[in-house]
Design brief:
563 residues, Four Helix Bundle (Hemerythrin (Met), subunit A), Formiminotransferase-cyclodeaminase, Chain B, domain 1, Alpha-Beta Plaits, 13 strands, alpha+beta
């Protein structure tokens, strides 16, 4: 799966939607960007825009949005209730999938540097992207706001991280940051009492509650030697929470901001509120996610609740999400539609033409058509995924077999391993076809001059080398499935041993089919050390697959004969 980051720029205009439309238009002009939300505020005269995509595309879109804002928003005429100091006031980047905070910080620095160099106005870096500890806090970076910016830029200790220390009346300054993903999450209670909801919120939120003498609501506040209230910390880190009554639904809720779901994930927040509510005689009836949530947050929740049930975790993403939704009552106040609530699914809506999204019939008919792709490489990858899937099925059946409760986790671990291999092989189904397309694109390059011929020849060579490595990856991935299959033949549910045998046959077919693609894609290339090494590796894997299949089938047939 590709790396995904979210960008949430705040533009200092909340009344003229024509201006905001110009900004969002340039953001959406970048390929592979998904605009998720545009939230204008009239009183604040500020609009929060949210979009996601792969890092390079997000940085390009963010730069274009900032550039357009600097051209059409005049800060010298701006007023609003929210703190601000620039046409684009803040521009945080948030890691969403398959990317670390450290990597996200590097992208933030790249964006900040480009804005400073090309647009030539002051840029500060904050939160995780801060170069100085005192600049981690946005309020500190933005202190004095726009009105105090001119004097601030004269202070050598407060010069920007990028761009000139020059006051530009029209654009002001910008803060670029990197922060954790924030999930807005509400938990529903079977009470109408805001006071009781607040009591639970204080129990769990990191800040906790003020320490008092006697009654926790009316007692005298206890202060420290500096005169500040003493706080009793709550049980959850990186959580802000408050209780309120929702008239629309007639219930009280715990409204939470989970500011770092790697520290306190959604499912842990839910269970902790259940625990604290129960201690106060209150029941949690369900919950709701406000806005979008990363896929991993839902998958982790599904695994968490399945683990509590001592059931196999090696099930489909769809099943994990279903378990998470039902366990936390995310559909109590309205339907939870994964395609609308999960960030990665929102992004992937545009890629519905991918082979793996086709029905079995459509994939078969597409393969049978006059088009040369998908071909043997993609089919080999798919056969491999099905072979591993059969092993995964046996693991899941074994995990849930009556009388084997003490071994559920062993089989669950095998099923999880199988799922990982399945997903990689499915990814390679489309990757193989994409590799073929790259070769065709290379052959289509112009060859009118000597320099063009050289570029074309090198492009063909590189594209073909990639097309060799993809089926090799199919081979090395699929053959790992034999370990799962063998374990299931040896100790899995005996009623499904023939399924494991079919899995072994499919995996061998996958490896041998991909091997043919490695060899044919080498045809016509000058053999160098790299290609010789690849060919040798492919031959070894192919021979090993034949041997492993024979051993596995011998065990399967022997076991069947003994039954």
């Amino acid at each position: 799966m590709n790396q995904i980051i979210e960008c949430v720029p705040n533009f200092s205009e909340g009344n003229d939607m024509g201006i905001i439309k110009q900004i969002t238009d340039v953001i959406e002009s970048v390929d592979n960007i998904k605009l998720l939300d545009v939230d204008p505020g009239k009183a604040t005269n500020r609009t929060v825009v949210t979009f996601v995509g792969e890092p390079a595309a997000v940085i390009e879109a963010a730069f274009l949005g900032v550039k357009k804002a600097s051209e059409i928003i005049d800060m010298s005429k701006h007023s609003g209730e929210h703190p601000r100091f620039g046409a684009t006031d803040v521009c945080p980047l948030i890691p969403v999938a398959n990317i670390t905070m450290e990597e996200t910080v590097k992208w933030a620095h790249q964006l900040a540097e480009r804005i400073g160099k090309e647009l030539k106005f002051p840029v500060y870096c904050y939160e995780n992207a801060a170069f100085k500890e005192e600049r981690r806090n946005l309020a500190s970076v933005r202190s004095g706001e726009y009105e105090g910016l001119k004097e601030k830029l004269k202070d050598l200790n407060r010069t920007p991280d990028f761009g000139p220390a020059t006051f530009i009346a029209k654009t002001g300054a910008l803060a670029v940051g990197a922060r954790d993903f924030l999930v807005a999450y509400n938990i529903n209670l079977n009470t109408t009492s805001t006071r009781r909801a607040n009591a639970i919120a204080y129990d769990v939120r990191e800040r906790g509650r003020t320490k008092r003498e006697g009654d926790q609501f009316t007692g005298k506040i206890i202060k420290d030697d500096k005169g500040k209230p003493v706080m009793i910390p709550g049980s959850l880190k990186s959580v802000k929470a408050i209780g309120w009554f929702i008239e629309e639904y007639g219930v009280a809720q715990i409204s939470m901001n989970l500011t770092n779901i790697s520290i306190t994930p959604v499912h842990e927040a839910f269970d902790e509120v259940c625990l604290k509510a129960d201690a106060r005689g209150i029941r949690v009836t369900g919950s709701e996610l406000v806005g979008l949530v990363p896929l991993d947050a839902m998958l982790d929740a599904g695994r968490y609740f399945l683990s509590k049930q001592k059931r196999s975790l090696g099930v489909s993403d769809k099943e994990l999400i279903k378990i998470a939704v039902k366990s936390m009552g995310l559909d109590e106040l309205g339907p939870f539609v994964p395609e609308e609530k999960i960030i990665e699914y929102q992004i992937n809506k545009a890629s519905s033409g991918a082979l793996v999204s086709m029905s079995l019939k459509d994939f078969m008919e597409e393969t049978a058509s006059e088009s040369p792709a998908p071909g043997g490489g993609s089919v080999s990858a798919y056969i491999g995924s099905m072979g591993v899937a059969l092993g995964t099925m046996v693991a899941n059946l074994s995990s849930h077999k009556r009388g084997w409760d003490d071994k559920w986790e062993i089989y669950s671990n095998w099923a999880v391993k199988g799922k990982e291999l399945q997903e990689e092989l499915l990814r390679l189904v489309d990757e193989d076809t994409a590799a073929f397309t790259k070769i065709m694109d290379a052959f289509a390059l112009p060859k009118n001059s000597e320099s063009e011929k050289e570029i074309r020849t090198e492009s063909i060579r590189l594209a073909t080398l990639h097309a060799i490595k993809v089926p090799l990856r199919v081979m090395t991935t699929a053959i790992e499935g034999f370990e799962l299959i063998d374990a299931m033949v040896e100790s899995g549910n005996p009623n499904s041993i023939s399924d494991a045998g079919v899995g072994a046959i499919a995996i061998r077919s996958s490896v041998l089919g991909a091997h043919l693609n490695v060899l044919i894609n080498m045809d016509g290339l000058e053999m160098d050390d790299e290609l010789l090494s690849i060919k040798s590796q492919a031959n070894i894997v192919a021979e090993k697959a034949v041997t492993l299949e024979a051993k596995t089938l011998a065990k399967v047939k022997s076991a069947i004969e003994k039954q």
